[in-house]
């Protein structure tokens, strides 16, 4: 701790953090089943979450603390390009409306817990199942680590430095997640989302009045971009394709992640999922308002060492201690909810698609739940160690790769809902090309998710995830068409 601590802000922060900690442990008794010693109950909340619980849970683990920190930071840095998250979160919900009820029904009918279960049930392939499960775990780990980045920005603004406060927060998270499973983040999500709504609405209503109105906010941001020679309030023509493909690719990848699929599988019906696809765009409106804080950072003339500090610095500079503490608590809790769901999703994958598949096929229901609980602890500790001992940029690069990787599981997970034409070897070959080809292109582009393409005319940049997905599907189709059924090897 240092002398820059605001005691009022810290007291309010601690109060709300303790509140959600209590809720996390109480959750074990909320909608209590006969036993939590079953992966359906611990890892999916008994598949019994209705419309409102699902809305808060999916919103809570889709719009994370890192979203609250990173989107305004990106807008602060590059301007209009940072708003790609808005069309991405609009495009995703028609996809959810059409596809996810079918996936939920398949999982419900056969007792599937993970995407790996769905793939193995559809194709009978352990190899394809393992590829999907391993991709899910690899893509999720850096995502959990980035929640810690968001929490670190808040703790720094509070004047709390070093790894100890972060470690304490994650130890508490690990304990109540171990105890209550998915019910803990589901219950806490109610508090987190309400707090975030209050914070963002208050910010966009009050901050501009302190900065001379929105006209001055946009004028200040425009002047700042012109002064540094990069960024703008409007996209330039060279950014159109990159912006559109990044939004589309991100939308297709979003509900392939284990944490979002966990929220889907925990729903009580396909109708609940469709209702949520209609209601969840309310979070997109919130995200758009939140992104404007990036422009407000320029109008406030903030002096930042890191763009990720723009939101905490705004609240610290322009609001009283008690409201700053409330806002910081909302962001920190916004890290706990998705981190918990992500660790549960990764633990479910490990338990069902590695432990049960290869280590102990006869494991009992209680044994599955025990393995999942322990794995969720290991996952959280791993994410914490990444942030403590490795550069933040490492987690950022891995998260960018994770989005490209998880997108490559879409053909295996989704195509089987509509057709039986594809076979496992073809989909596995496609996944291999998409996964490793996409990784190579990211490396070739200097660890950036966009790649320059020239087709004879003016060069343009495209999101690598979509390039890899196109190659993935093309290889799967070609393999399936060329290799006869009788010679296809079961993997």
Furnish the topology, listing elements before pairings:
Layout: H1 7-26, H2 39-44, H3 51-62, H4 65-78, H5 85-110, H6 115-123, H7 126-158, H8 164-180, H9 183-210, H10 213-228, H11 240-254, H12 258-265, H13 270-279, H14 281-299, H15 310-318, H16 321-359, H17 365-389, H18 392-407, H19 410-414, H20 424-444, E1 450-453, E2 460-463, H21 464-482
Antiparallel strand pairs: 1-2
Helix pairs in contact: 1-8, 1-9, 1-16, 3-9, 3-12, 3-13, 3-16, 4-7, 4-14, 4-16, 5-11, 5-13, 5-14, 6-7, 7-16, 7-17, 7-18, 8-17, 9-10, 9-14, 9-16, 10-14, 11-18, 12-16, 14-15, 16-17, 18-20, 18-21, 20-21
What would you note in describing this structure?
This protein is mostly helical and about 500 residues long. It contains 21 helices and 2 strands. It has helices spanning about 5-25, 40-45, 50-60, 65-80, 85-110, 115-125, 125-160, 165-180, 185-210, 215-230, 240-255, 260-265, 270-280, 280-300, 310-320, 320-360, 365-390, 390-405, 410-415, 425-445, 465-480, and strands at about 450-455, 460-465. It has a two-stranded antiparallel ribbon with strand order 1-2. The mean pLDDT is about 90.
Name some characteristics of this structure:
mainly alpha; 21 helices; 2% strand
What is the distance, rounded to the nearest whole angstrom, between the alpha carbons of the first and last residues? 55 Å
Total number of helices = 21
Rg over CA atoms, rounded to whole Å, is 22 Å
Mean pLDDT: 88
How would you write the strand order of the largest sheet? Answer: 1-2
State the secondary-structure class.
mainly alpha
Major β-sheet annotation: 2 strands, antiparallel
The tally of beta strands, per DSSP, is 2
Helix content percent band = over 70%
- Strand and helix order: HHHHHHHHHHHHHHHHHHHHEEH
Percent of residues in beta strands? under 5%
């Amino acid at each position: 701790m240092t002398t820059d601590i605001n005691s009022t802000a810290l007291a309010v922060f601690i109060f709300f953090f303790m509140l959600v900690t209590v809720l996390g442990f109480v959750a074990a008794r909320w909608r209590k089943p006969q036993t939590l010693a079953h992966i359906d109950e611990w890892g999916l909340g008994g598949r019994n979450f209705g419309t409102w619980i699902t809305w808060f849970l999916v919103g809570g683990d889709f719009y994370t603390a890192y979203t609250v920190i990173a989107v305004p930071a990106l807008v602060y840095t590059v301007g209009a390009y940072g708003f790609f998250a808005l069309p991405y979160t609009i495009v995703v919900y028609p996809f959810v409306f059409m596809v996810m009820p079918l996936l939920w029904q398949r999982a419900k009918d056969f007792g599937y817990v993970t995407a790996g279960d769905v793939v193995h049930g559809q194709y009978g392939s352990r190899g394809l199942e393992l590829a999907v499960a391993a991709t899910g775990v690899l893509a999720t780990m850096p995502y959990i680590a980035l929640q810690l980045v968001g929490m670190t920005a808040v703790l720094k603004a509070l004047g709390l430095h070093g790894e100890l406060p972060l470690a304490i927060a994650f130890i508490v998270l690990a304990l109540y997640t171990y105890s209550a499973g998915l019910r803990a983040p589901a219950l806490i999500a109610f508090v987190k989302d309400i707090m975030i709504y209050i914070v963002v609405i208050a910010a966009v209503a009050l901050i501009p009045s302190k900065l001379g109105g929105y006209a001055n906010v946009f004028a200040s941001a425009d002047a700042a971009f012109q002064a540094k020679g990069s960024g703008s309030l409007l996209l330039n023509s060279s950014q159109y394709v990159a912006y559109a493909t990044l939004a589309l690719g991100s939308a297709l990848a979003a509900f392939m992640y284990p944490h979002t699929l966990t929220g889907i599988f925990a729903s009580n019906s396909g109708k609940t999922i469709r209702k949520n696809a209609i209601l969840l765009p309310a979070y997109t409106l919130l995200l758009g308002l939140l992104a404007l804080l990036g422009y407000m950072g320029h109008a406030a003339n903030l002096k930042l060492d890191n763009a990720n500090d723009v939101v905490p610095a705004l609240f610290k500079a322009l609001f009283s201690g008690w409201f700053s503490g409330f806002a910081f608590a909302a962001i920190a809790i916004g890290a706990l909810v998705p981190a918990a769901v992500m660790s549960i999703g990764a633990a479910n994958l490990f338990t069902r698609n590695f432990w049960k598949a290869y280590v102990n096929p006869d494991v009992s229901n209680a044994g599955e739940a025990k393995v999942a609980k322990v794995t969720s602890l290991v996952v959280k500790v791993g994410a914490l160690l990444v942030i403590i001992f490795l550069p933040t940029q490492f987690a950022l690069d891995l998260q960018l790769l994770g989005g490209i990787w998880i997108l490559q599981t879409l053909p295996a997970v989704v195509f089987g809902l509509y057709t039986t034409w594809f076979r496992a070897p073809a989909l596995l070959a496609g996944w291999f090309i998409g996964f490793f080809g996409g990784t190579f292109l990211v490396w070739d582009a200097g660890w950036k998710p966009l790649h320059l393409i020239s087709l004879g005319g003016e060069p343009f940049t495209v999101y690598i995830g979509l390039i890899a997905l196109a190659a993935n599907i093309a290889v799967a189709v070609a393999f399936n068409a060329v290799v006869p059924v009788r010679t296809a090897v079961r993997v």
